[in-house]
Amino acid sequence: MKVIDNLLDSITMYRLVLYYLILLLFVACVFSFIGILPYNPFLFIFSVLFLITVSWITNKIFANVFNAPTNVESVYISALILALIISPINSFSGLPLLFWAAVLTMASKYILAINKKHIFNPVAIAVVLTAFGFRGSVSWWIGTASMLPFSLLGLLIVRKIKRYDLVFYFFSTSLLIMLGFNLIEGNNLFTTLKQIILFSPIFFFAFVMLTEPLTTPPTKKLQSIYAVLVGVLFTPQFHIGSFYTTPELSLVIGNAFSYLVSPKDKIISAIRQKIQIAPDMVDFFFIPKKKLAFIPGQYMEWTLPHKNPDSRGNRRYFTIASSPTEEAIRLGVRFYPNGSSYKKAMLAVGTDTPFVGAQLAGDFTLPKNINQKLIFIAGGIGITPFRSMIKYLIDIKEHRPIILFYVNRTIDEIVYRDVFDQAQEEGIKIVYALTDQTKLPPDWKGAVGRIDTDMITQAAPDFRERIFYLSGPRTMVTAYEETLKKMGIKENKIKTDFFPGFA
User: Taking the model in full, what pTM does it have?
Assistant: First the structure.
């Protein structure tokens, strides 16, 4: 799995989804040529290109009208999803359905939004509208036995964005209800299960549509409720009188629930200030027009349009390093010599380039019980959520039993020391550790080397009573997880927070 994780770490979620969709359509095109799928291969290719073209043009028009930054990946992803759920045309008389589906998909991103936040999955609401307004239904043809092995590769998306719980609750709910109905009707359960797995779009729907970040609730608890709701509505047997739901309608209803329980804020702001806080780290400051309401430890997705984006795209997730008590939104970002086009553009921008911050989310937050003992372990830029939490506690004068282990290679990589020095005065224990023994300061009094069992037990003899928070690069987080498990720490007492890929 390390090879797979390293591969996933090298690209963004959006680019991964795009590659997955391209693969599915390429395989389907080949299958059409050799007769496995019942489509004219040339009309199949034409349908895909038509959807892409109409989507691109429509998005360009709306982006100019609304003066909004565009995400090129999003346009292609939406167009390719449409190509996988609407059957390819048999003749040119089928073009109006494709045309309106593409137009409505792009339009929904701009029109069906409040404060520039999506309400519905653009593809789902578009095909619902075409069904009601243009009597054009979608076939979800991707749900075929021949495409199943390739559809299952969507598990890589789930692994990338860590939506295991969301997908699990959806599958469990929909399968149990469908099997229950068929059991009541006296149908063979094995035959029913085979039908669901081989001839329904359930996997593609779950991996691509259900997990779409902008229309998913922000916390695991709400995501579980969302998954159960959509799972119930997804089942073909669910109906109210003569009204039956469809996969797309189940998602649209779920999206409405998600919107109601999710933060509505979206930031469009230029950088107010940049400060280099370490040799390879910079703090970026934004002053939003409206104060952002967030919980310390949460993150946002930040879009930075720039020329010639590489395979990692123009969007990144960054944890908010500032406290809700501070006026500015502060992002601490690490840069690498051969970093992504996004990071290079970010480092080069002036104070007139707008960033778009959206999708406030995250469960990596302080527990409600203020007496719960905690241990924070951070490596490098993984310190940002802890800076937010600790600064918040200082400002509201709330005392919590916290020990922070902060690991870096050299002393000049330690950041936010002003906050942590003040925290020590307030009773929070801070343990600094340096791993490069060749560059230790002569008067260094902190720890040396990686945080290990001895360091933890020495600093926290009561470690079994504490919840551990881990934040940093993937390799560091997984290594410390193993260390803690060997110490007998249960999985439910370990919280992790990292976004694969910091380049």
Answer: 0.85
